[in-house]
Amino acid sequence: MKVEIYSDIACPWCHVGKSRFERALAAFPGAGGVEVVYRPFQLDPHAPEEPLPHREVLAAKYGPQSVAMDDHITRLGADEGLAFDFDTVVENNSLLAHRLLRFVLEEYGPDVQARLKGRLLEAHFGEGIDIGDREHLADAAVAVGLDRGPVAVFLGGDDLRDEVLGEIEEARQRGVTAVPTFVFEGQWAVQGGQDPATFLKILQQVAEATGAEAGATEAEAGAGEACSDGACAV
């Protein structure tokens, strides 16, 4: 079974959703036959390529409710063992990080890509790293066991830019408007950071479906505005 996860490093629900899905996958008897690939998506493709304080960026978009939004996701993250320190989070355009994830997928495979994705999320939301900074991205790659040299060479160039932008456009054409969105076997889309029990049920249903659409379930969480329960919407 192949699961493609559309997500953005800038999305806190993607951090929560990754944790919940991985808990479900660990409980799934057929986990050894599941390939998980992370696909790029940008909530704000026009974000400036410069580090800006998260609190200021969110307040400019959503006003006073931004504090409650951060507090809510911080509590949910704690339930997953995830640290969110929004006072230190720095926002930046996420394209460079997505290019690195695509590079790692091609060169080292999906398992290493997943480890890097997790490291980027935890470092961005819990440690205040700048996901647009080449040195910080290289540090994250080294932290998951990669050699800095090839990563630094890649980050110093412009490779895979068109490919990643093409993937993001393809996602929009497929109807992805919020992240995280989980696509099972290229057919069934599940939007939002569902609870582990729901993810486990979906894994079981897709495994049993053997390609028969009638045997699968499409579950979607309402995206709402901004980062509401389950997903961050454009």
Automatic annotation (TrEMBL):
InterPro entries documented for this protein: DSBA-like_thioredoxin_dom, Thioredoxin-like_sf
The DSBA-like thioredoxin domain, residue ranges: 3-204
Taxonomic superkingdom: Bacteria
Single Gene Ontology MF annotation: oxidoreductase activity
PANTHER family with a match to the protein in the record: GLUTATHIONE S-TRANSFERASE KAPPA, THIOREDOXIN SUPERFAMILY PROTEIN
Protein name per the record: DsbA family oxidoreductase
